[in-house]
Amino acid sequence: MRLPCGLWLWLSLLKVLQGQTPSPPTLPPPMQSFQGNQFQGEWFVLGLAGNSFRPEHRALLNPFTATFELSDDGRFEVWNAMTRGQHCDTWSYVLIPAAQPGQFTVDHGVGPGADREETRVVNSDYTQFALMLSRRHTSKLAVLRISLLSRNWLLPPGTLDQFFCLSRAQGLSDDNIVFPDVTEWSPHTSVC
């Protein structure tokens, strides 16, 4: 009689523990005074952090640009271009303004049933750097991504620290942070 009671207790405890998955950290608010007209233009993506990135992904990330074009209705059309050898990979999406300035929903141009994604500008001085945070909700998990953007290859002092602190505040480790491999890259626009 003790064995069935012990088994029942163990199974009940297991079920309770499975229901106690830690809740994800709260997202930081978007910038208080976001100015879309100052944010638009070309940015270099100097770093990415995310819960889907692993150390082995570092070799896959090449330098790339993100160009944000503001439309009259407050949407941003975003074009990305990444060089891979002599080829240029491009992709685009639209950022649709949400209730708060600097916060957007992402339209990837796919039909109904697509994963819901939200993004926000967490911090920017508009002329040198920006930090963006995105969260995409799939049927099974939330995919988090933090982007470190720069207008050029030089970051102002403390920006990298902000990027690491924001990443850690979202529960990410150094293994979840990747930087593009710039060893054989030059910023020529002939490919892209």
TrEMBL record:
Localization recorded for this chain is:
Secreted
* Domain Lipocalin/cytosolic fatty-acid binding, first and last residues per copy: 40-184
Q: Cite a single GO MF annotation.
A: small molecule binding
Q: What Pfam families does this protein's entry cite?
A: Lipocalin
Keyword list, A-Z: Disulfide bond, Glycoprotein, Secreted, Signal, Transport
Q: Which InterPro entries match?
A: Calycin (IPR012674), LCN2/LCN12 (IPR003087), Lipocalin (IPR002345), Lipocln_cytosolic_FA-bd_dom (IPR000566)
Q: What is its main location?
A: secreted
Domain of life of the organism in this record?
A: Eukaryota
State the signal peptide span: 1-19
Q: Name one GO cellular component term.
A: extracellular space
- Stored PANTHER family: EPIDIDYMAL-SPECIFIC LIPOCALIN-12, LIPOCALIN
Q: Which family does it belong to?
A: Belongs to the calycin superfamily. Lipocalin family.
**What function does this protein fulfil?**
Binds all-trans retinoic acid and may act as a retinoid carrier protein within the epididymis. May play a role in male fertility.
**Complexes and interactors:** Monomer.
The protein depicted here goes by the name Epididymal-specific lipocalin-12
Give the species this sequence originates from: Macaca mulatta (Rhesus macaque)
